[in-house]
Amino acid sequence: MSLDRPPGHQPAAQHPPGHQPVQASPGPVHPVWNEPVPPRRIGRIVVAVVGIVLAGLALLAVFAYLMTFLGSGALLFGLLLALLPLALVLFAVRWIDSWDPEPRSALVFALLWGAGISIVSALVVDLGVQVTIAASAGALAGSDFASAVIQAPIVEEVAKGFGVLVLFWAVRRHFDGPNDGVVYASTIAAGFAFSENIQYFGLALTEGTAQTLGVTFLLRGVFSPFAHVTFTICIGLALGLAARRGASKGGAVGCFLIGLAPAIALHALWNGATFVLAGDASVLLYYVVVQVPLFIAAILVVVFLRRQEARITLRRLHEYSQAGWFTAAEVSMLGTGAGRRQALLWGNRQDRSKKVAMRHFIADATRLAFVRDRLVRGQNTPALHATEARLLELLMRHRADVLGQTLPGSAPAAQ
Description:
The chain has about 425 residues and is an all-alpha fold. It has 2 domains: about 40-275, no CATH class; about 315-405, no CATH class. It contains 12 helices and no strands. It has helices spanning about 40-95, 105-135, 145-170, 180-205, 210-225, 225-245, 250-275, 280-320, 330-335, 335-350, 350-375, 380-405. The two termini are about 40 Å apart. About 40% of the residues are buried.
């Protein structure tokens, strides 16, 4: 393999920024290099920092609450043990998100929302219920069944799902479809399960035996690390479909409610099984007959969505190729898994600047394909057109950096 050119590269028409490509049918939408765009990057950074700080403070509040009845030793032990299923879930999320990675700041916020804000919300509601029951002077009575099968599924799925809705509003330009919804929902659910597991593992250590702790870890850390993920991705899928169809912020609320219903139902089914079924054998049978098929179905959905992302990327980049922005070989390199692996392998053998340029070339080409897809679906907003123009300019620069060339006729980047 040549070390002078990226794999599959053929000399192509080098379009300087500002050049209007020859229109094909269908061709890329009209570039708008010179249309002014209000600077929003600083504002987005401030919002991201504030959101992450607030969610982080909520997580600290959860740790403080757990320490009040677990103690520092049990809290630390439970935290370390809870990291194991968390790492497993996040590894799976990373695989799901590998084709078109979401912003790290959004993923950090999602994790903190689940581990902090969602838990705090559930605790506040539970406290309110307990206070109401106590103030009723016996007129109201709580039950473990109502708490586990009715209250917990509703409160927890609303709290987690609202985090996905917040991300839909906050990072809409990165929220392209169902796969993105699955990524954000799974990350939030992983954070929620993490904090919840700390409590369960800590209590098993302080109030039970070694056997109790082993059974608790087996049930929560081995058998069901993806349980919360399976529930909450229903909301992520609904909001992802809303994003693909170009739903407004108000319309997204309706999709959120549609996804919330099956999320609550699955959560209630999971919690209710422990009350309806008696004995370890019955619970194991329920797990094999009900939960395993649901988990397999979730895996199949995720695999389908990943393949759909690859198909969209290949199709939309081919349209740009027809208009002269890429060669057919470059489309294959950027839009297929095998092509990307070969390109990244080539990049790893180059100096740092070419290696980074190749990674950016692939990432921004994927973003461009999804921007193009939204435009084709009728989401013709000035901001989206400007994003397309900016990405096209960046891609020409990345290509030049990969080839070690100087891009001629450079025009000012979109403001």
